[in-house]
Amino acid sequence: MAGSIQGVIDLRMEERIEFDEITQLSAVAMGEPGKRTFFLIIRQKGKWVRAWLEKELLEALAMATDQFLASIAQERRYFTPETTAEVAPEDVLAGLPSVELEIDQIALGYDQEKATLNFSVHGSGSQKVGWSELYCRVTLAQLKKLGVQARKICAAGRPRCLLCGLPIDPEGHICPKSN
Question: What's the number of domains the chain is made of?
């Protein structure tokens, strides 16, 4: 099934879902700071996947994206991916996803002028199925845009304590390092 997600819903025991030409790759957060949920939108033509992840994993993805693109730029010595317009929220959430997944791990790679994102995933909600891998080939510009979105989303959360690094609630914060 390489290069297509056709039949994703019917083939629920598939161990690998592949997206070859991503038309949209976006990071999204919903809710109030401290109670937000985070997910990625991965779209190929008319079908899309909503992949849920923890904020810490999104932050790690943003940092890894920066390091990854810097190392490619150093190797190629001329890489400057173009930036694209931000995705409007109504575009992100239009329609129902083909499938919803929860991300456990993310690996970045580079192959034939495209970045590869390899997600270790499991089904979410009523779609708890045996999928174990979601593989995407994206342009370097799409990857850079994802990193920018992820950093912006994570920075919009609750401020962090300078001593312990934990988030500070509006009601205050009991810092374990100040005792």
Answer: 1
